[in-house]
């Protein structure tokens, strides 16, 4: 017997984006823990490449997950691919909770990463394919909000668990990661399948029924439903007649432009350096001479700001367009990176002992500037690249290539996420403040590419966007 389905797009988004919340949970499961005595003592003060390997293990697994997410989604559907991903999360979380050293911890995080690689690529695909064109941006922004709520919730769970003695501290925090995965698995059966995926696999009657329920309260003869269905079938027929198949579809006949846009916008989201502030904010604030509970609470404030300002962009992303947010957001973030790096380089004093990932500190007014512009960086990121990169990458693909194309874009995201997660702790140890200058330069590179190469996709149907490329 088939369970009843709910067709309100905001409800569909809230349930499906719990997949993004898993990513947020895993980020904070480390960022809230790495500065605690329990973690440092149990894992023998991991630093440099060792801590980089632990931090980047999730991204390594996510690359693997994203690579087979497209074929999995095309075969079983967007909805069921998300469900299957949760099984990897349950396994990875169990390994983390039972870990007896950092080798086992890395293995558990890799398994969790496989789940995140699938959900991070296929949840935006699912949302893009069910949303009305005038609301598509705001619907996909819910994915980023879910990531941020996951970061915030898990951060304060980790903070609370830091008062538990011994290794039960971080094991309890990591064990709580079971909860959102189970919630998502219970909610998925109540979600309808993507009507565009149903059309792709030849289930036209069900596709029209779901499209009508989502777009027009079940009225199949509604003009908007009829027009959108005609667009879907016309584009799908044209794509099936294309002379290229397999991976050649992503480079031939101008498709390289879509591939370039989708993968590069995801890469720039990571190369902007903002995720340094989410993964390693505890280290950054130690550079600003914060320690103990004050450091953890100040880090939590950053995550709260992340949520507040991504909520703001939810209301105007479909009015302002994608290009301005990508261009001006990258410029604003670059300025923040230069200021943080410049202040640390000018006023910083080298310190010995303590955390081996933190070799420079500032005090007094310079420390306030570092904290303020670290917050400002996250605010600009929350308003621009954080949500818009997911929206833009989900929009640029054709129906035949969307699942695998978004998976490719996610691979780019996770490859650079892995590289930065591995690189940043050694960078803090070896070149300290110059790390922020490098990210500042990269941010301006992102602005230039967005200005030159990215067409505007706002207020257009997915089929209309195909014409732009």
Report the count of strand segments: 2
* Major beta-sheet overview: 2 strands, antiparallel
As laid out across the biggest beta sheet, the strand order is: 1-2
- Compressed to H and E, one letter per element, the order equals HHHHHHHHHHHHHHHHHEEHHHHH
Category from helices, strands and their pairing: mainly alpha
Tally of separate helices: 22
Sheet-strand content, in percent, reads under 5%
End-to-end CA span: 43 Å
Query: What's the gyration radius in Å?
Result: 22 Å
In round numbers, the mean pLDDT is: 83
Helix content: over 70%
What is the 3D form?
A: globular
**Segments where pLDDT lies below 50 for 5+ residues?**
none
Would you kindly provide a written description of the structure presented here, covering whatever features stand out?
It is built from 22 helices and two strands. It has helices spanning 9-16, 18-31, 37-42, 48-76, 78-97, 102-130, 136-161, 168-175, 178-187, 195-200, 204-216, 223-240, 255-271, 274-279, 281-287, 292-320, 323-347, 365-383, 385-395, 402-430, 434-453, 462-468; strands at residues 349-350, 360-361. It starts with 8 loop residues before the first helix and ends with a helix. Helix 5 (78-97) packs antiparallel against helix 8 (168-175) and helix 7 runs antiparallel to helix 16 (292-320). Strands 1-2 form a two-stranded antiparallel sheet. Helix content is 76%, strand content 1%. The model has no long low-confidence stretch (mean pLDDT 83). It is globular, with a radius of gyration of 22 Å. The chain is mainly α.
Give the topology.
Layout lengths: L8 H8 L1 H14 L5 H6 L5 H29 L1 H20 L4 H29 L5 H26 L6 H8 L2 H10 L7 H6 L3 H13 L6 H18 L14 H17 L2 H6 L1 H7 L4 H29 L2 H25 L1 E2 L9 E2 L3 H19 L1 H11 L6 H29 L3 H20 L8 H7 L1
Antiparallel strand pairs: 1-2
Helix pairs in contact: 1-6, 1-7, 2-6, 2-7, 2-9, 4-5, 4-6, 4-20, 5-6, 5-8, 5-9, 6-7, 6-19, 6-20, 7-8, 7-16, 7-19, 13-19, 13-20, 13-21, 15-16, 16-18, 17-18, 17-21, 18-19
């Amino acid at each position: 017997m088939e369970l009843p389905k709910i067709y309100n797009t905001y409800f569909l988004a809230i349930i499906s984006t719990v997949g993004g919340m898993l990513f947020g949970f895993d980020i904070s499961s480390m960022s809230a823990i790495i500065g605690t005595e329990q973690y440092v003592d149990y894992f023998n003060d991991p630093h440099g490449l060792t801590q980089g390997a632990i931090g980047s293990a999730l991204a390594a697994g996510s690359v693997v997950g994203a690579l087979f997410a497209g074929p999995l989604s095309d075969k079983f559907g967007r909805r069921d691919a998300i469900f299957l991903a949760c099984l990897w999360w349950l396994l990875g979380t169990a390994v983390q909770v039972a870990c007896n050293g950092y080798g086992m911890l890395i293995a558990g995080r890799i398994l969790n990463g496989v789940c995140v690689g699938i959900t991070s690529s296929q949840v935006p695909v699912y949302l893009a394919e069910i949303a009305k064109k005038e609301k598509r941006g705001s619907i996909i922004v819910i994915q980023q909000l879910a990531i941020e709520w996951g970061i915030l919730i898990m951060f304060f769970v980790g903070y609370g668990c830091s008062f538990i003695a011994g290794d039960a501290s971080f094991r309890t925090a990591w064990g709580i990661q079971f909860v959102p995965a189970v919630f998502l698995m219970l909610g998925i059966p109540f979600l309808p399948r993507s009507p565009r995926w149903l059309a792709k696999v030849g289930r036209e009657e069900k596709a029209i029924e779901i499209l009508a329920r989502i777009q027009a309260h079940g009225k199949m003869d509604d003009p908007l439903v009829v027009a959108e269905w005609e667009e879907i079938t016309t584009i799908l027929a044209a794509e099936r007649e294309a002379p290229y198949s397999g991976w050649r579809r992503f480079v031939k006949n101008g498709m390289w432009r879509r591939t370039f846009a989708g993968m590069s916008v995801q890469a720039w989201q990571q190369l902007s350096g903002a995720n340094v502030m989410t993964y390693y904010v505890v280290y950054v604030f130690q550079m600003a001479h914060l320690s103990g509970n004050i450091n953890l609470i100040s880090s939590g404030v950053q995550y709260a700001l992340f949520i507040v300002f991504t909520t703001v962009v939810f209301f105007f992303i479909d009015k302002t367009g994608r290009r301005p947010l990508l261009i001006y957001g990258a410029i604003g973030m670059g300025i923040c990176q230069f200021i943080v790096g410049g202040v640390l380089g000018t006023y910083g004093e080298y310190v010995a002992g303590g955390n081996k990932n933190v070799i420079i500190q500032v005090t007094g007014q310079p420390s306030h500037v570092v904290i303020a512009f670290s917050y400002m960086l996250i605010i600009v990121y929350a308003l621009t690249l954080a949500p818009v990169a997911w929206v833009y990458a989900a929009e640029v693909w054709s129906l035949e290539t969307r699942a695998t194309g978004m998976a490719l874009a996610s691979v780019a995201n996770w490859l650079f996420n892995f590289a930065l997660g591995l690189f940043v702790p050694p960078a803090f140890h070896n070149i300290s403040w110059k790390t922020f200058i490098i990210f500042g330069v990269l941010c301006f590179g992102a602005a230039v590419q967005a200005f030159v190469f990215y067409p505007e996709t706002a207020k257009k149907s997915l089929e209309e966007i195909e014409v732009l490329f």
